[in-house]
Amino acid sequence: MDIDVGSCIASLLYDNDTVGIPGLGAIVGHYKSAVIEPVQGAVHPPSKSLEFNENLVMDDGLLLDLIVSKYDLPRAEAEKIISDYVNDVKSAIRRKEFVVFPNVGRLYQNYEGKYQFLPDDSNFNPDSFGLPSVQFYPIIRHNRPVMTTAQQQMQKKGFTLGNVVSGNIAEWFQRNLAAFITLAVVIVSIGIWLLVAYKVPKDEILTVVPEERVNISPSEIEGGPDDLKEVENTNPQDAEVPPPAAEEEDVDDSPPTPAPDETEGITPDPAQEYALIAIGAFGNPDNVEKLIKKVYEEGYEAYTRKVGKLTQVGVQLPYDDQEEINVALIEIRKKFDNKAKVVQR
Asked: Does the global pTM surpass 0.70?
């Protein structure tokens, strides 16, 4: 006779919260209330959640009594059948296999050697037995605007608010179309008149700088006072930069010695030799003062002398040999103008 012990366990769970399997453990049921799953859109009825407890190995007699009464077997033979079933279950678990209790769940052993039980979806709660899970969908209500009595009457006659508003706007534009065209013509005419009336002549846009205000470089000063020209430059930095001058090897080493009253600065020591390095010449006193100030700020002695209508500004350099002049000339060209030159030794 083939006796399914696992099916007997399932039938006992409807009327009992705990069903023991002698020598193996017990399956324990707990009441589980109804569950609503908003994400899944389902409502599950009350049921009995199952778990396996390997510590409850004592025989409660429920499984034995059911087999004896159901199959009309002696108790000794029923005990032998239960014992063989438990041994088969333990052997399968040691082989890392899943043991299936029909309609109840599956039992296996994890990597730590402990029993793990996975229950099925069967509902063993007799109060809700046979109740299926129910799918539900949320009801979306749209709030419609309340229409007035006048709007309801207009809707019955075939008119809508949109039609009335659009009809009124179109009619208003048609009535005032001539006024809009007239206003546009007036605006365009005023704009053209303003462009013509306030047009700036080209002669007023361009500003001609007098030639006598053009700055002259030291090389141009040697040509004579009659050739000197000057321009007033609004940019102080540009005003201090003279036009290109001749290279150092083209410097005239024997220019005329200026009169004592034409040189400003510290009175030189008669025993000390001085060289004059010209940086620029200006007709504007403000530009002269700016360059003199910059020379002193850089740590040099400034000198000025009149050359025709312009004032020449440069560095008065004490020296002992020609090498000192060459080194100083390189530094002055870097700091002031790359066309600075020696005009006196």
From this structure: no
